[in-house]
From TrEMBL:
<dbReference type="GO" id="GO:0003700">
    <property type="term" value="F:DNA-binding transcription factor activity"/>
</dbReference>
<keyword id="KW-0804">Transcription</keyword>
<keyword id="KW-0238">DNA-binding</keyword>
<feature type="DNA-binding region" description="H-T-H motif">
    <location>
        <begin position="53"/>
        <end position="72"/>
    </location>
</feature>
<dbReference type="InterPro" id="IPR050109">
    <property type="entry name" value="HTH-type_TetR-like_transc_reg"/>
</dbReference>
<feature type="domain" description="HTH tetR-type">
    <location>
        <begin position="30"/>
        <end position="90"/>
    </location>
</feature>
<protein>
    <submittedName>
        <fullName>Transcriptional regulator, TetR family</fullName>
    </submittedName>
</protein>
<dbReference type="Pfam" id="PF00440">
    <property type="entry name" value="TetR_N"/>
</dbReference>
<dbReference type="InterPro" id="IPR009057">
    <property type="entry name" value="Homeodomain-like_sf"/>
</dbReference>
<dbReference type="GO" id="GO:0000976">
    <property type="term" value="F:transcription cis-regulatory region binding"/>
</dbReference>
<keyword id="KW-0805">Transcription regulation</keyword>
<dbReference type="InterPro" id="IPR036271">
    <property type="entry name" value="Tet_transcr_reg_TetR-rel_C_sf"/>
</dbReference>
<dbReference type="InterPro" id="IPR001647">
    <property type="entry name" value="HTH_TetR"/>
</dbReference>
Amino acid sequence: MIAIREKTQAMTIAMKVTQAAASRAARMREATDRKIMQATLQIATSRGIGAVTIEEVARRSGVAKTTIYRRYRNTGDLLHKIQIETSSTFEVDDLTPTRSDLHCLLDRVAAAFNGEIGLKAVGLVLSSDNDYVKGLANQVIAPAEQRFYDYTRRGVEAGVFKHGLDTEFLFSTVLGSMLAYKALQERQAGVKPAEIDADKTGTANMPGVSSDAGADSTNDAGTWADHMTNLLWPALAA
């Protein structure tokens, strides 16, 4: 009986060790994928799509070429598969067309853009004339814009919001104000805007992205949501 119990305990320990190792491996892979994505985005935005090569991505990211080639057959495969990371897409089905829920919506929009790419990186992508880079940006923006449209549409149908709202313009205003507010906060804090480093890549080197973004982004987002609610509600309310 004791032998069976000891064997069971040993199997449980072995399983936990295996699971922990798998979890570490998954986190390491995610970190590597993130470095590759950020380097590719930097190169495509600053120098054009033609400048993106496996060698240049490896140089900027610090990821070995052999590692990149294990993920992608060639540069074309990398460009086809690369995706911008964000927080999980927010939901709006539980939100009603009220001032308080509009504030909640804006909080969720801000949280969705506080992922690895960050607000300023989104702004950098949006300012590019490169169709490929714009396509990457659309991966981030289109789902959030659709949620914003769904929310305002329900408000119009309920008779709470005005008819004929230009939701595309309103959402662009929301994004623009987030970018401006982020820049203002950095200026007031005496933080110099991050520059793209030609030789380094990583979360800390991306514009507007820091490894501890989650620590203070909530307070910033909340304050921004307060201001934006005050501005947006009169434009929406019927």
